[in-house]
Amino acid sequence: MLNFDYRNPTHVVFGKDRIAELDQLVPANARVLITYGGGSVKRFGTLDKVKAALGNRTVFEFGGIEANPKYETLLQAVDVARKEKIDFLLAVGGGSVMDGTKFIALATQFDGDTASLLHHGFTPVPVANDKVIPLGVIATLPATGSEMNAFAVVSYQGGKYPVNHPCVYPTFAMLDPELTFSLPKIQVANGVVDAFVHVLEQYATYPVDARVQDRMAEGIMRTLIEIGPITVEEPTNYDARANLMWSATSALNGMIGTGVPLDWSTHMIGHELTALFHIDHAQTLAVVLPSLWRVLKEQKHAKLVQYAARVWDITEGDEDSRVDQAIDKTEAFFKQVGLPVRLRDHGVTQDQLGLVVDALEAHGMTALSESGKVDLATSRKILDMAW
Ligand code: NZQ
Ligand code: ZN
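Above: the input record for the complex with zinc ion. Below: its predicted structure, written as C-alpha coordinates.
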Protein backbone atom coordinates (compact mmCIF):
# COMPACT_ATOMS: atom_id res chain seq x y z
CA MET A 1 0.00 0.00 0.00
CA LEU A 2 1.22 3.53 -0.73
CA ASN A 3 1.67 6.14 2.02
CA PHE A 4 -1.32 8.37 2.59
CA ASP A 5 -2.96 11.07 4.71
CA TYR A 6 -6.70 10.92 5.13
CA ARG A 7 -9.01 13.45 6.70
CA ASN A 8 -12.63 14.14 5.81
CA PRO A 9 -14.39 16.70 8.00
CA THR A 10 -17.84 16.64 6.35
CA HIS A 11 -20.74 15.85 8.69
CA VAL A 12 -23.10 13.60 6.74
CA VAL A 13 -26.79 14.00 7.54
CA PHE A 14 -28.43 11.11 5.71
CA GLY A 15 -32.09 10.18 5.40
CA LYS A 16 -35.59 11.47 4.86
CA ASP A 17 -37.28 14.58 6.22
CA ARG A 18 -34.25 16.20 7.78
CA ILE A 19 -34.35 19.69 6.27
CA ALA A 20 -35.63 21.17 9.54
CA GLU A 21 -32.29 20.21 11.10
CA LEU A 22 -30.63 22.97 9.07
CA ASP A 23 -31.46 25.13 12.05
CA GLN A 24 -28.81 23.26 14.06
CA LEU A 25 -26.34 22.91 11.19
CA VAL A 26 -26.10 26.52 9.99
CA PRO A 27 -24.60 29.03 12.47
CA ALA A 28 -27.42 30.91 14.26
CA ASN A 29 -26.41 34.41 13.27
CA ALA A 30 -25.10 33.62 9.78
CA ARG A 31 -25.74 35.77 6.74
CA VAL A 32 -26.54 32.96 4.34
CA LEU A 33 -26.39 32.85 0.55
CA ILE A 34 -28.44 29.95 -0.82
CA THR A 35 -27.14 28.88 -4.22
CA TYR A 36 -29.07 26.76 -6.70
CA GLY A 37 -29.34 25.81 -10.35
CA GLY A 38 -31.86 26.31 -13.11
CA GLY A 39 -34.92 26.05 -10.91
CA SER A 40 -35.60 22.40 -10.04
CA VAL A 41 -35.32 23.21 -6.33
CA LYS A 42 -38.02 25.85 -6.75
CA ARG A 43 -40.30 23.65 -8.84
CA PHE A 44 -40.19 20.76 -6.39
CA GLY A 45 -40.56 22.83 -3.23
CA THR A 46 -37.14 22.20 -1.71
CA LEU A 47 -36.15 25.86 -1.64
CA ASP A 48 -39.21 26.89 0.37
CA LYS A 49 -38.50 24.18 2.95
CA VAL A 50 -34.89 25.29 3.20
CA LYS A 51 -35.84 28.92 3.73
CA ALA A 52 -38.39 27.96 6.37
CA ALA A 53 -35.76 25.92 8.23
CA LEU A 54 -33.34 28.85 8.25
CA GLY A 55 -35.86 30.85 10.32
CA ASN A 56 -34.78 34.39 11.18
CA ARG A 57 -31.33 34.28 9.65
CA THR A 58 -30.55 36.87 7.00
CA VAL A 59 -30.90 34.93 3.77
CA PHE A 60 -30.03 35.83 0.16
CA GLU A 61 -30.48 33.69 -2.93
CA PHE A 62 -28.42 33.14 -6.05
CA GLY A 63 -30.06 30.93 -8.70
CA GLY A 64 -29.06 30.09 -12.25
CA ILE A 65 -25.87 28.09 -11.72
CA GLU A 66 -25.89 26.05 -14.92
CA ALA A 67 -24.74 22.47 -15.53
CA ASN A 68 -20.93 22.54 -15.89
CA PRO A 69 -20.88 25.85 -14.01
CA LYS A 70 -19.36 28.78 -15.79
CA TYR A 71 -16.77 31.02 -14.20
CA GLU A 72 -18.67 34.12 -15.36
CA THR A 73 -21.87 32.99 -13.62
CA LEU A 74 -20.01 32.20 -10.43
CA LEU A 75 -18.41 35.63 -10.44
CA GLN A 76 -21.88 37.17 -10.28
CA ALA A 77 -22.48 35.20 -7.09
CA VAL A 78 -19.11 36.35 -5.78
CA ASP A 79 -20.30 39.95 -6.24
CA VAL A 80 -23.42 39.22 -4.21
CA ALA A 81 -21.42 37.47 -1.50
CA ARG A 82 -19.00 40.42 -1.24
CA LYS A 83 -21.72 43.07 -1.28
CA GLU A 84 -23.94 41.35 1.27
CA LYS A 85 -21.06 40.24 3.52
CA ILE A 86 -22.14 36.62 3.31
CA ASP A 87 -20.54 34.34 5.90
CA PHE A 88 -22.20 31.02 5.07
CA LEU A 89 -22.98 29.45 1.69
CA LEU A 90 -25.69 26.84 1.32
CA ALA A 91 -25.67 24.92 -1.97
CA VAL A 92 -28.90 23.18 -2.89
CA GLY A 93 -28.53 21.11 -6.05
CA GLY A 94 -26.39 18.68 -8.01
CA GLY A 95 -22.66 18.55 -8.62
CA SER A 96 -22.68 21.76 -10.65
CA VAL A 97 -24.25 23.82 -7.88
CA MET A 98 -22.08 22.24 -5.18
CA ASP A 99 -18.91 22.75 -7.25
CA GLY A 100 -19.88 26.28 -8.18
CA THR A 101 -20.47 27.11 -4.55
CA LYS A 102 -17.03 25.82 -3.58
CA PHE A 103 -15.55 28.19 -6.14
CA ILE A 104 -17.62 31.09 -4.75
CA ALA A 105 -16.34 30.18 -1.27
CA LEU A 106 -12.74 30.44 -2.49
CA ALA A 107 -13.07 33.43 -4.79
CA THR A 108 -15.06 35.80 -2.58
CA GLN A 109 -12.22 36.83 -0.29
CA PHE A 110 -9.45 36.22 -2.81
CA ASP A 111 -7.43 39.38 -3.39
CA GLY A 112 -5.84 38.55 -6.74
CA ASP A 113 -7.24 37.63 -10.16
CA THR A 114 -9.93 35.03 -9.43
CA ALA A 115 -9.33 33.35 -12.81
CA SER A 116 -5.87 32.40 -11.56
CA LEU A 117 -7.59 30.00 -9.12
CA LEU A 118 -8.38 27.81 -12.12
CA HIS A 119 -4.80 27.07 -13.01
CA HIS A 120 -3.58 24.89 -10.14
CA GLY A 121 -4.80 21.52 -11.42
CA PHE A 122 -4.90 18.95 -8.63
CA THR A 123 -2.76 21.10 -6.29
CA PRO A 124 -4.71 23.05 -3.65
CA VAL A 125 -5.22 26.69 -4.62
CA PRO A 126 -3.09 29.23 -2.69
CA VAL A 127 -5.81 30.63 -0.44
CA ALA A 128 -5.42 31.07 3.32
CA ASN A 129 -7.75 28.84 5.37
CA ASP A 130 -9.45 31.79 7.03
CA LYS A 131 -10.24 33.33 3.65
CA VAL A 132 -12.72 30.67 2.63
CA ILE A 133 -16.43 31.09 3.34
CA PRO A 134 -17.75 27.93 5.02
CA LEU A 135 -20.39 26.05 3.08
CA GLY A 136 -22.98 23.36 3.59
CA VAL A 137 -24.73 21.35 0.88
CA ILE A 138 -28.08 19.73 0.27
CA ALA A 139 -27.43 17.27 -2.55
CA THR A 140 -30.29 16.71 -4.98
CA LEU A 141 -28.44 14.52 -7.49
CA PRO A 142 -26.39 11.46 -6.45
CA ALA A 143 -23.46 11.33 -8.86
CA THR A 144 -20.35 13.41 -8.40
CA GLY A 145 -19.45 12.93 -4.74
CA SER A 146 -18.92 16.70 -4.54
CA GLU A 147 -21.01 16.69 -1.35
CA MET A 148 -18.20 15.07 0.61
CA ASN A 149 -15.01 16.15 -1.13
CA ALA A 150 -12.93 19.27 -1.58
CA PHE A 151 -13.00 19.38 -5.39
CA ALA A 152 -14.83 21.51 -7.89
CA VAL A 153 -14.81 21.67 -11.69
CA VAL A 154 -15.36 25.06 -13.33
CA SER A 155 -15.93 25.81 -17.04
CA TYR A 156 -13.82 28.63 -18.41
CA GLN A 157 -12.80 29.69 -21.92
CA GLY A 158 -13.70 26.39 -23.57
CA GLY A 159 -12.11 24.17 -20.91
CA LYS A 160 -13.08 22.50 -17.62
CA TYR A 161 -10.73 23.24 -14.75
CA PRO A 162 -10.39 21.32 -11.48
CA VAL A 163 -10.06 23.44 -8.35
CA ASN A 164 -9.50 22.22 -4.82
CA HIS A 165 -8.69 23.34 -1.30
CA PRO A 166 -9.14 21.44 1.99
CA CYS A 167 -11.32 24.25 3.36
CA VAL A 168 -14.06 23.65 0.82
CA TYR A 169 -15.08 20.31 2.22
CA PRO A 170 -18.71 21.06 3.03
CA THR A 171 -19.19 21.42 6.79
CA PHE A 172 -22.28 19.27 6.38
CA ALA A 173 -23.87 17.31 3.56
CA MET A 174 -27.56 16.67 3.77
CA LEU A 175 -28.37 13.57 1.73
CA ASP A 176 -32.09 12.91 1.50
CA PRO A 177 -32.85 10.28 -1.16
CA GLU A 178 -36.42 11.59 -1.44
CA LEU A 179 -35.13 14.94 -2.73
CA THR A 180 -33.82 13.03 -5.75
CA PHE A 181 -37.13 11.36 -6.68
CA SER A 182 -37.90 14.24 -9.05
CA LEU A 183 -34.80 13.63 -11.19
CA PRO A 184 -35.33 12.78 -14.87
CA LYS A 185 -34.34 9.17 -15.65
CA ILE A 186 -31.33 10.25 -17.68
CA GLN A 187 -29.84 12.15 -14.74
CA VAL A 188 -30.21 9.08 -12.53
CA ALA A 189 -28.47 6.98 -15.19
CA ASN A 190 -25.75 9.63 -15.35
CA GLY A 191 -25.35 9.35 -11.60
CA VAL A 192 -24.99 5.57 -11.65
CA VAL A 193 -22.30 5.73 -14.32
CA ASP A 194 -20.42 8.69 -12.85
CA ALA A 195 -20.18 6.93 -9.48
CA PHE A 196 -19.17 3.63 -11.10
CA VAL A 197 -16.40 5.28 -13.10
CA HIS A 198 -15.15 7.21 -10.04
CA VAL A 199 -14.66 3.88 -8.31
CA LEU A 200 -12.89 2.38 -11.31
CA GLU A 201 -10.47 5.25 -11.75
CA GLN A 202 -9.24 4.57 -8.22
CA TYR A 203 -9.20 0.81 -8.74
CA ALA A 204 -8.28 -0.23 -12.27
CA THR A 205 -4.58 0.61 -12.20
CA TYR A 206 -2.07 -1.91 -10.74
CA PRO A 207 -2.17 -3.90 -7.49
CA VAL A 208 -0.51 -2.51 -4.34
CA ASP A 209 -2.05 -5.01 -1.89
CA ALA A 210 -4.59 -2.46 -0.65
CA ARG A 211 -7.19 -4.99 0.40
CA VAL A 212 -9.57 -2.72 2.30
CA GLN A 213 -9.69 -0.15 -0.51
CA ASP A 214 -10.11 -2.86 -3.18
CA ARG A 215 -12.92 -4.61 -1.35
CA MET A 216 -14.73 -1.38 -0.56
CA ALA A 217 -14.46 -0.41 -4.23
CA GLU A 218 -15.76 -3.83 -5.31
CA GLY A 219 -18.63 -3.53 -2.82
CA ILE A 220 -19.68 -0.15 -4.21
CA MET A 221 -19.51 -1.46 -7.79
CA ARG A 222 -21.56 -4.57 -7.01
CA THR A 223 -24.11 -2.37 -5.27
CA LEU A 224 -24.37 -0.09 -8.31
CA ILE A 225 -24.79 -3.09 -10.62
CA GLU A 226 -27.59 -4.41 -8.40
CA ILE A 227 -29.50 -1.21 -7.80
CA GLY A 228 -28.56 0.93 -10.83
CA PRO A 229 -31.18 -0.41 -13.26
CA ILE A 230 -33.79 -0.56 -10.46
CA THR A 231 -33.33 3.03 -9.36
CA VAL A 232 -33.48 4.28 -12.96
CA GLU A 233 -36.79 2.47 -13.54
CA GLU A 234 -38.33 2.99 -10.08
CA PRO A 235 -37.66 6.60 -9.09
CA THR A 236 -39.56 6.41 -5.81
CA ASN A 237 -38.06 3.13 -4.60
CA TYR A 238 -36.47 4.61 -1.47
CA ASP A 239 -34.05 1.81 -0.67
CA ALA A 240 -32.67 1.61 -4.18
CA ARG A 241 -32.20 5.39 -4.31
CA ALA A 242 -30.68 5.48 -0.83
CA ASN A 243 -28.13 2.90 -1.93
CA LEU A 244 -27.33 4.90 -5.05
CA MET A 245 -26.89 8.02 -2.99
CA TRP A 246 -24.51 6.50 -0.48
CA SER A 247 -22.62 4.68 -3.26
CA ALA A 248 -22.07 7.95 -5.12
CA THR A 249 -20.85 9.74 -2.01
CA SER A 250 -18.62 6.83 -0.95
CA ALA A 251 -17.15 6.62 -4.43
CA LEU A 252 -15.50 10.02 -4.22
CA ASN A 253 -15.07 11.02 -0.59
CA GLY A 254 -11.41 10.02 -0.71
CA MET A 255 -11.71 6.79 1.25
CA ILE A 256 -11.23 4.24 -1.55
CA GLY A 257 -8.54 6.37 -3.19
CA THR A 258 -6.21 6.39 -0.19
CA GLY A 259 -2.94 4.51 -0.57
CA VAL A 260 -3.60 3.36 -4.14
CA PRO A 261 -2.50 4.59 -7.57
CA LEU A 262 -5.09 6.68 -9.40
CA ASP A 263 -5.89 7.11 -13.07
CA TRP A 264 -8.15 10.05 -13.92
CA SER A 265 -7.57 9.81 -17.69
CA THR A 266 -11.19 8.96 -18.47
CA HIS A 267 -12.29 12.11 -16.63
CA MET A 268 -9.67 14.30 -18.27
CA ILE A 269 -10.61 13.16 -21.79
CA GLY A 270 -14.28 13.31 -20.81
CA HIS A 271 -14.00 16.93 -19.66
CA GLU A 272 -12.79 17.94 -23.13
CA LEU A 273 -15.77 16.15 -24.70
CA THR A 274 -18.16 18.08 -22.47
CA ALA A 275 -16.44 21.39 -23.17
CA LEU A 276 -16.38 20.83 -26.94
CA PHE A 277 -19.65 19.02 -27.62
CA HIS A 278 -21.77 19.70 -24.50
CA ILE A 279 -22.15 16.00 -23.73
CA ASP A 280 -23.28 15.39 -20.12
CA HIS A 281 -20.33 14.63 -17.83
CA ALA A 282 -21.22 10.97 -17.08
CA GLN A 283 -22.05 10.29 -20.72
CA THR A 284 -18.51 11.21 -21.74
CA LEU A 285 -17.22 8.65 -19.23
CA ALA A 286 -19.49 5.88 -20.58
CA VAL A 287 -17.96 6.47 -23.99
CA VAL A 288 -14.29 6.78 -22.98
CA LEU A 289 -13.72 4.20 -20.23
CA PRO A 290 -14.29 0.93 -22.16
CA SER A 291 -12.16 2.16 -25.07
CA LEU A 292 -9.43 3.37 -22.74
CA TRP A 293 -9.28 -0.09 -21.19
CA ARG A 294 -9.19 -1.79 -24.60
CA VAL A 295 -6.14 0.30 -25.44
CA LEU A 296 -4.47 -0.03 -22.01
CA LYS A 297 -5.42 -3.57 -21.06
CA GLU A 298 -1.84 -4.77 -20.76
CA GLN A 299 -0.92 -1.97 -18.37
CA LYS A 300 -4.02 -2.70 -16.25
CA HIS A 301 -4.05 -6.47 -16.71
CA ALA A 302 -3.74 -7.67 -13.10
CA LYS A 303 -6.45 -5.36 -11.75
CA LEU A 304 -8.78 -6.07 -14.66
CA VAL A 305 -8.47 -9.81 -14.00
CA GLN A 306 -9.35 -9.14 -10.34
CA TYR A 307 -12.24 -6.88 -11.42
CA ALA A 308 -13.58 -9.58 -13.75
CA ALA A 309 -13.61 -12.16 -10.95
CA ARG A 310 -14.75 -10.10 -8.00
CA VAL A 311 -17.21 -7.72 -9.63
CA TRP A 312 -18.61 -9.80 -12.52
CA ASP A 313 -17.90 -13.37 -11.27
CA ILE A 314 -15.94 -14.13 -14.45
CA THR A 315 -13.49 -16.90 -13.58
CA GLU A 316 -13.56 -19.23 -16.61
CA GLY A 317 -11.24 -19.06 -19.63
CA ASP A 318 -7.77 -17.58 -19.97
CA GLU A 319 -6.98 -14.25 -18.35
CA ASP A 320 -7.11 -12.22 -21.57
CA SER A 321 -10.56 -13.45 -22.42
CA ARG A 322 -11.76 -12.75 -18.86
CA VAL A 323 -10.55 -9.17 -19.21
CA ASP A 324 -12.31 -8.81 -22.56
CA GLN A 325 -15.54 -10.15 -21.09
CA ALA A 326 -15.31 -7.76 -18.14
CA ILE A 327 -14.85 -4.78 -20.47
CA ASP A 328 -17.85 -5.91 -22.55
CA LYS A 329 -19.94 -6.35 -19.38
CA THR A 330 -19.02 -2.87 -18.21
CA GLU A 331 -20.06 -1.37 -21.51
CA ALA A 332 -23.29 -3.38 -21.49
CA PHE A 333 -24.04 -2.09 -17.98
CA PHE A 334 -23.70 1.52 -19.13
CA LYS A 335 -26.09 0.75 -22.00
CA GLN A 336 -28.48 -1.09 -19.71
CA VAL A 337 -28.99 1.97 -17.52
CA GLY A 338 -29.58 4.04 -20.65
CA LEU A 339 -26.37 5.75 -21.75
CA PRO A 340 -24.89 5.64 -25.27
CA VAL A 341 -21.40 4.16 -25.47
CA ARG A 342 -20.12 5.59 -28.75
CA LEU A 343 -19.15 9.14 -29.63
CA ARG A 344 -21.04 8.94 -32.92
CA ASP A 345 -24.26 8.38 -30.92
CA HIS A 346 -23.67 11.89 -29.56
CA GLY A 347 -23.40 13.33 -33.06
CA VAL A 348 -19.61 13.71 -32.94
CA THR A 349 -18.01 13.17 -36.37
CA GLN A 350 -14.71 11.40 -36.90
CA ASP A 351 -13.01 14.54 -38.20
CA GLN A 352 -13.86 16.31 -34.94
CA LEU A 353 -11.67 13.92 -32.95
CA GLY A 354 -8.61 16.04 -33.73
CA LEU A 355 -10.23 18.92 -31.83
CA VAL A 356 -10.28 16.78 -28.71
CA VAL A 357 -6.59 15.97 -29.05
CA ASP A 358 -5.82 19.67 -29.60
CA ALA A 359 -7.76 20.55 -26.45
CA LEU A 360 -5.91 17.90 -24.43
CA GLU A 361 -2.64 19.38 -25.63
CA ALA A 362 -3.74 22.94 -24.84
CA HIS A 363 -4.65 21.86 -21.29
CA GLY A 364 -1.39 19.98 -20.69
CA MET A 365 -3.03 16.53 -20.71
CA THR A 366 -0.15 14.89 -22.50
CA ALA A 367 1.01 12.24 -20.01
CA LEU A 368 -2.13 10.69 -18.56
CA SER A 369 -2.92 7.52 -16.58
CA GLU A 370 -1.16 5.87 -13.64
CA SER A 371 1.87 5.24 -15.85
CA GLY A 372 1.98 8.72 -17.40
CA LYS A 373 2.28 6.91 -20.74
CA VAL A 374 -0.99 8.07 -22.27
CA ASP A 375 0.37 10.68 -24.65
CA LEU A 376 -1.63 12.48 -27.31
CA ALA A 377 -1.21 9.64 -29.83
CA THR A 378 -2.62 7.15 -27.30
CA SER A 379 -5.51 9.47 -26.49
CA ARG A 380 -6.23 9.64 -30.21
CA LYS A 381 -6.30 5.83 -30.35
CA ILE A 382 -8.75 5.77 -27.44
CA LEU A 383 -10.97 8.35 -29.15
CA ASP A 384 -10.89 6.44 -32.44
CA MET A 385 -11.96 3.31 -30.63
CA ALA A 386 -14.67 5.23 -28.76
CA TRP A 387 -16.08 6.67 -31.98
O1 NZQ B 1 -30.28 23.21 -12.55
P1 NZQ B 1 -31.47 22.50 -12.04
O2 NZQ B 1 -32.76 23.11 -12.44
O3 NZQ B 1 -31.40 22.22 -10.56
O4 NZQ B 1 -31.50 21.06 -12.79
C1 NZQ B 1 -30.44 20.13 -12.67
C2 NZQ B 1 -29.59 20.03 -13.94
O5 NZQ B 1 -30.34 20.39 -15.08
C3 NZQ B 1 -31.05 18.77 -12.57
N1 NZQ B 1 -31.39 18.37 -11.19
C4 NZQ B 1 -30.56 18.31 -10.12
N2 NZQ B 1 -31.23 17.82 -9.06
C5 NZQ B 1 -32.51 17.61 -9.46
C6 NZQ B 1 -32.61 17.96 -10.83
N3 NZQ B 1 -33.77 17.84 -11.52
C7 NZQ B 1 -34.84 17.36 -10.86
N4 NZQ B 1 -34.81 16.98 -9.56
C8 NZQ B 1 -33.66 17.08 -8.84
N5 NZQ B 1 -33.62 16.63 -7.57
O6 NZQ B 1 -30.04 17.89 -13.06
C9 NZQ B 1 -29.30 18.56 -14.08
C10 NZQ B 1 -27.83 18.23 -13.95
O7 NZQ B 1 -27.30 18.76 -12.76
P2 NZQ B 1 -25.73 18.83 -12.50
O8 NZQ B 1 -25.53 19.38 -11.15
O9 NZQ B 1 -25.07 19.51 -13.64
O10 NZQ B 1 -25.29 17.28 -12.58
P3 NZQ B 1 -24.20 16.48 -11.81
O11 NZQ B 1 -24.56 16.29 -10.38
O12 NZQ B 1 -23.97 15.28 -12.63
O13 NZQ B 1 -22.90 17.43 -11.82
C11 NZQ B 1 -22.06 17.51 -12.95
C12 NZQ B 1 -20.90 18.46 -12.66
O14 NZQ B 1 -20.07 17.95 -11.60
C13 NZQ B 1 -18.70 17.92 -12.04
C14 NZQ B 1 -18.85 17.69 -13.52
O15 NZQ B 1 -17.67 17.98 -14.22
C15 NZQ B 1 -20.00 18.60 -13.88
O16 NZQ B 1 -19.55 19.93 -14.01
N6 NZQ B 1 -17.95 16.91 -11.28
C16 NZQ B 1 -17.57 17.22 -10.02
C17 NZQ B 1 -16.80 16.37 -9.26
C18 NZQ B 1 -16.37 16.70 -7.89
N7 NZQ B 1 -16.70 17.85 -7.37
O17 NZQ B 1 -15.70 15.90 -7.24
C19 NZQ B 1 -16.35 15.07 -9.78
C20 NZQ B 1 -17.09 14.63 -10.99
O18 NZQ B 1 -16.30 13.71 -11.66
C21 NZQ B 1 -17.46 15.72 -11.92
O19 NZQ B 1 -16.35 16.08 -12.75
ZN1 ZN C 1 -17.22 12.21 -12.60
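Notes for the reader.
Residues 144, 194, 198, 267, 281 surround zinc ion (ligand 2) (CB under 6 Å).
The CA atoms of residues 29 and 57 lie 6 Å apart.
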